[in-house]
Amino acid sequence: MAEQTGLEVKPLGEFFIQERDDDMLIAERCWQFGNRCIARRPRLLTNEEWRPTAQRIVAALAVPAPQPGWQTMDTAPKDGTRILLWMVHDNAKYSKHPVEEGWEAAVIAEWIDHNGGGWTWHGLFGRPTHWRHLPASPRSAGQ
After folding, report:
1. Are the beta carbons of 135 and 66 closer than 8 angstroms?
2. Which of 24, 47, 82, 95 is deepest in the core (most CB within 10 A)?
3. Contact present, 128 and 87 (Cβ < 8 Å)
4. By C-alpha distance, which of 78, 84, 82 is closest to 124?
C-alpha cells in the first residue's frame, strides 16, 4: 500500500514521521481517532532539509516524562489526565494492616468538570490522600 500511495510511514514510538514525495509531517498515534498530525514541514524546506529537525522533535517527544513519587492532592492535575490516586477508606483508622485488609489502595482516576467538578474512579470508596502519574505501559517501555 505504501508503494501505491507514495506514503512511507516510519514508526518511532507513539510519534512518527510520515513522508510523501512532496510533504512530511509528524503524527501521533491516537487509538480513538487514528493518527493525528502535530507538525508539518514548512513549505520553504525540502523533506531532506526538514528531516533532521523532524527526527529531533520525535526523539524529544519519545522521552518519557519524569515519574515522581506520590504527591499531595493539592498538586494533582485537574485537566482530565488519568492518574493513580491513593484512596483511604474511613475504616482504615481501625485497622493494623489497612492495605492488606483492603481499606487503602491505589485506583486509576481522572478529574471531571461535570456537576461542579470532582474525581471519578472505580473501586475502593474513600478519600484520595495522594496521587502519582501512571507508569509507562510495557509497550511504551519496549518490553
Report:
1. no
2. 24
3. yes
4. 84
**Closest by CA position to 136, among listed 77, 84, 59, 72:** 84
Helix (H), strand (E) at residue 87 = strand 83-88
| Bridge pairing between strands 104-112 and 118-121 | antiparallel
Do 84 and 108 meet the contact criterion of CB atoms below 8 Å apart?
yes
In degrees, rounded to 5, the angle at the alpha carbon of residue 64 between the alpha carbons of residues 63 and 70 is 155
Instruction: Report residue 96 as a C-alpha cell.
Output: 493494623
Q: How far apart are CA 76 and CA 119, in angstroms?
A: 10
Distance separating alpha carbons of residues 81 and 136, to the nearest angstrom: 14
In terms of Cβ atoms closer than 10 Å to its own Cβ (0-12, 13-18, 19+), residue 64 is exposed
Cα–Cα distance between 10 and 19 in angstroms, integer? 8
- Interacting residues of 68 by C-beta distance below 8 A, sequence separation 6+: 132, 133
Residue type, 109: A
